[in-house]
Amino acid sequence: MAEVLRARELALADRLEALARITVPPAFEFLNEPDRYLVAYGGRGSAKSWSICRRLLREALWRPIRVLCCREIQLSIEESVHHLIESQIRELGIEDYFDVLEKRITSKAGAEFVFAGLRSNVTKLLSMEGVDRVWIEEAAAISHNSWEKLIPTIRRPGSQILVSFNPDLEDDPTYKRFIKSPPPDAIVRKVSWRDNPFFPEELRREKDYLASVDADAYEHVWEGACRSHSDAQVFKGKFAIEAFEPEATWDGPYYGADFGFNDPTTLLRCWIAGRTLYVEHEAYAVSCDIDRTPALFDAVPEARRHTIRADSSRPETISYLQQHGYPELVGVEKWPNSVEEGVQYLRQYERIVIHPRCEHTAAEFRLYSYRVDRLSGDVLPELADKHNHCVDALRYALAPIIKGNNFAAWVDYTKGEAARERAEGEAPPVGQHLPHHRPRPAAGSVAILDPTGGLFEAYQKAFAEANGGIYLGETCSSCGDLIAPGTRYVKADRSFHEQCWQSFN
Description:
- The protein is globular, with a radius of gyration of 27 Å.
- 34% of the residues lie in helices and 20% in strands.
- The termini are far apart.
- It is α/β, with parallel strands linked by helices.
- A hairpin with a 6-residue loop joins strand 16 (370-372) and strand 17.
- It folds into 3 domains: 20-195, Rossmann fold (3-Layer(aba) Sandwich); 232-404, Nucleotidyltransferase, domain 5; 406-504, no CATH class.
């Protein structure tokens, strides 16, 4: 009996010693309070997720709690905080007290962590019983509908909802619910990088760089201010942050690099699947010396084995990399309006999917904007030259496709033809159909009016034949509007929306 008691005493001492190792920064001590809602919001690098994770691990080490870890959309376990919890268990040296399984994590005390996306699991969550703690990560993306269905479901006595997020827009449901009008039983704390005693030097360089080039973006990213001028966002509604695995049928991979020192040095790897562009990996560093660039680029899988297209304005960097393990790295030829044409090409995709690990690319897609007039607040038709280093790398990666497509030349040409016909009375205003007395084009013809000497015609024909008459984008010769990505179209002596062709005939 004495031996059993002694073993229990030793086990208790070990557990108490493990508990003592699980600490959080002083700014996050409020997470130990019993209030219903514990909300940590603010800028990047503030240790919000890290602190909530540790607070939950500390409790799970001692008590049989059930923790639901969720976000708005979770298509795979890789998009959850599963990996963060696992890495903290290892870092704290408490592996003996936890079992890390593929889709859940349990503790020897009987605690369980489960992971789910709110949007696609509402029915399942409504039937989930016995949840003691809910951790909602990246809560800025949580919809009003998800909040309305989740909160009544978490009804166990003493249950708590822990929320962490970087604010985006003031009218987001989460911001309105907890910042503008917080419930009475909530503790809400705004935190920043200053509250993180372990703030790394790499993030400090990124923070200082953004502060030097864009004060507004710095306030949003690092200080937790809400973003303004969302209407100026170049890729608004065009991109999503989702985990994925490349498939054998996808085209690619394509690699693109942008060089900088005061500006970031970046390398991206991407794929194309039909009308979707996927950004799979990134390398990103501010103040990266040329001799450190090969090691930086090695973070992107198989980069040394593939052609990398890069900013041609840095021939000395290209030469160095070619001599240090990157012989297939080449400079990209630039042409008039290449930036605008490249951005227009990217916008032709139905979706641009960015893997969650590419957080700098995701940030640029949120921040890359058209210029806004300082006095009127009007959005101008000019791209702002900032938050575009990953975007530039993406353009370089796809440069042969962009230039081979000659997209801008074709659109300008067909728009010019439509404008000429309207001016000469041969065509009705945009939005109306061509008159029926126009000669009917020959059925099955694929000949087109091509200002590019046949190059564009060959590309269009091959693409159309491979995709059953689904084309990336050009102008309809009937209504004069752009044929949107993924729209079925008819190609005769010119191109038409399918519905316009039916009306024409």
